[in-house]
Structures are given as structure tokens and as C-alpha cells.
Amino acid sequence: MIALTSKNMMYVNRYYHPVYLFCRYVVYVVLHVLFRICVVHPENVPREGGVILASNHIHNFDPPTVGITLSRYVSFMAKEELFALPVASSLLKTIGGFPVRRGGQDRSALRFSFDVLEQGGCLMMFPEGHRSKTGVLGKGMPGVAMIAKRSEKPIVPIGIIGSYKIFSKVTIRFGTPYYASPSESNQEIVNTLMNKIQQLVDLGHEEAKRTFGD
Predict the structure, then answer these.
(1) Where are the domains of the chain?
(2) Does position 9 have pLDDT exceeding 60, yes or no?
(3) pLDDT tens digits for range 37-68
(4) Bridge partners for 37 per DSSP
(5) What is the pLDDT of residues 90-137, one digit of tens each?
(6) DSSP string, 154-179
């Protein structure tokens, strides 16, 4: 299996790698068997060019669930502890994961993120920095703002709605892309982003109550 490094990874063409396509197919089937996945406005994600996907984080299934809704290879940060086992590490790297050290600035993960965007790739980030145990959107961290400003790439906010209970509905709602203003502080960018994510989550909950009652 090809090692995941910024030197040999082509983030635009990796989508067509046979190992990735096989893993994607397996994940697609499993997730669609387990959950009722609904996708809203996936067309808001640009078909090409570097882009940041910024989402709330409610479950470990979030990255692959978002990934199977798009016709793009999605790279995403995952806590380095998940890469401890060789099999898990190989699988995560194949489907787009790369390790990040929590609790401080991880320069290697930052460089990797910029490489993804500069090569025209799709980078998924969770501004909260960790999963929400309650499902309530937490405080955003400044990392996504810093990367967005320096890379000058658009941000697509995402709201994930659902409990991930077996056979329950999980909705992925994509917002419209926007650029972080160079004149804004990192905190202002994060505040704007978190508001956009919260609006998407609220829309999803309101729609679920009106339509399905779940």
C-alpha cells in the first residue's frame, strides 16, 4: 500500500486509486446499511481546487460519512492515537486520514494540510477539535481560521445531524462556500464559521421534526 506522505500523494487523482475506490465502496455499503443517510446541497462543494470542509463533530463516523457523499478525495485530520495499530493506520491513510497531535500545535499536520490545499485537494476539519459528547456545538478553535487565511482557499461549512443509532437518519447539510477575509482576526473568522455551522445544524433539526418526527 502506498505510504501517505505529502511528497508522493496526488490529492486530486487519489480518488481514482483502486485501493481507495474499493475501500470507499465497502464504507459506502456499510454506512448505507446501518443508517439512512441524507445529503443536502453537495453541489456547494467546488468540483475542483483546494477547499476546506469545516464541520461539527458528533461521531467517529463523521469523516467517512461526509467522504462518501462527494466525488472528491477528502483528506482529514485524526488523532494520532488512532494510528497506533498498523492495520488501522493503513486503512485510515488509504481513506484520507492523517495524524494530528492534540493539545498543542502540530507543525507536521499543518504542513500536510497546506500541501493538500496547495495541490488542489479537499481538506476536512473539525473546528471544535474533538467530538461533542452531547451533540451540542462547542467552541471553535483558531486552527481552521489560520489555515483558511494563509491558504486563501474557500471554506464550506457542514452541519451533521443525527444520532448514528442503527437505522436512524443521518443528514449531511452543506452550506455555501465563502472566503475568510484577510482583515478579520482568527477569532472573528471562527465565530462566523461556527455560526454558519450552527445554522445548518438547526435547519436540519427543524426539517427532521417537520418531516419525519425524528
Answers:
(1) 14-211
(2) no
(3) 999 999 999 999 999 999 999 999 999 999 99
(4) 170
(5) 888 888 889 888 766 788 889 999 999 999 999 999 999 889 989 899
(6) -EEEEEEE----TT-EEEEEE---BP
User: What CA–CA distance (Å, rounded) separates 188 from 34?
Assistant: 38
Cα(214)–Cα(199) distance, integer angstroms: 19
CATH topology of domain 14-211: Glycerol-3-phosphate (1)-acyltransferase (3.40.1130)
* Of 40, 43, 61, 45, nearest in space to 173 by CA: 40
List, as one string, the DSSP characters of 15-47: GG-HHHHHHHHHHHHHHHHHSEEEEE-GGGS-S
- The helix (H) or strand (E) run that includes residue 89 is helix 86-94
Q: Is the pLDDT of residue 1 over 50?
A: no
Cα torsion 89, 94, 95, 99 to 10°: value is 40
- Which residues, at least 6 apart from 126, have a Cβ–Cβ distance to it below 8 Å? 54, 55, 56, 57, 62, 77
Q: How is the beta sheet containing 169-174 ordered, strand by strand?
A: 36-40, 169-174, 155-161, 51-55, 122-125, 74-79, 97-100
Indicate the residue type of 60. Answer: N
Instruction: Give the distance, in angstroms, between the CA of residue 207 and the centroid of all CA atoms in the same chain.
Output: 22
The contacts of residue 37 (CB under 8 Å, 6+ apart) are 31, 65, 68, 69, 169, 170, 171, 172
pTM exceeds 0.85, yes or no? yes
